[in-house]
Amino acid sequence: MSIPNRTIKAIVFDVGKVLIQWDMRVLFAKLIRDPQELDWFLANVVTEDWHFEHDAGRELEDMLEEKKLQFPDYACQIDAYATRFLETIPGHIPGTHELVERLAARGVPLYALTNFAAPFWAEFQPTEPIFDHFREIVVSGQEKMAKPDPAIYALAEKRFGHAGHELLFIDDNPANVQSARDCGWNTHHFRDAKGLEIDLQKQGLLD
């Protein structure tokens, strides 16, 4: 039988690719039918690196204006990034919402730390009742800093009221996991809900 980790007082979830699916291809495949053109568009126009700038707090209007000047033939698709973003979220990650429900039922304090643009978060959060279980959520776009910057982990500790060694952080991105670990947090590199469930049981956080 595993020995519970008594130092962990709370759990911090990432959102994208841990609680929810996120894939910009889902939206833009509706707008660009040719697969090769779609691949090129996602590699050169609306890229994940460009999207990260918005997650980190850059103003959307400035990003759109700049991008449409670079790629005027794709102005409509670039606008769709702003107006149809929720279509990049096709559903839940299988199993993780159930784990959140079980943890909440046990009274485990739950928090979230997510790279998410502020306007998109304001649009998305009300659609997901699961977030009612979270005591506090730190959103990169609101704070104008993003994972894996150590500063956002320090901010999260203050907001959550726990030192890093009291937190278990769950994230799919290896760089984010490593940064949290460097800040003294306990971590779980998320791959699927079953692996997370096993780890939570080993930590004594789930039956």
TrEMBL record:
InterPro entries: HAD-like_sf, HAD-SF_hydro_IA, HAD_sf. Pfam families: Hydrolase (PF00702). Gene3D superfamilies: HAD superfamily/HAD-like (3.40.50.1000). It comes from the Bacteria. This is HAD family phosphatase. The lineage of its organism: Bacteria, Pseudomonadati, Pseudomonadota, Alphaproteobacteria, Sphingomonadales.
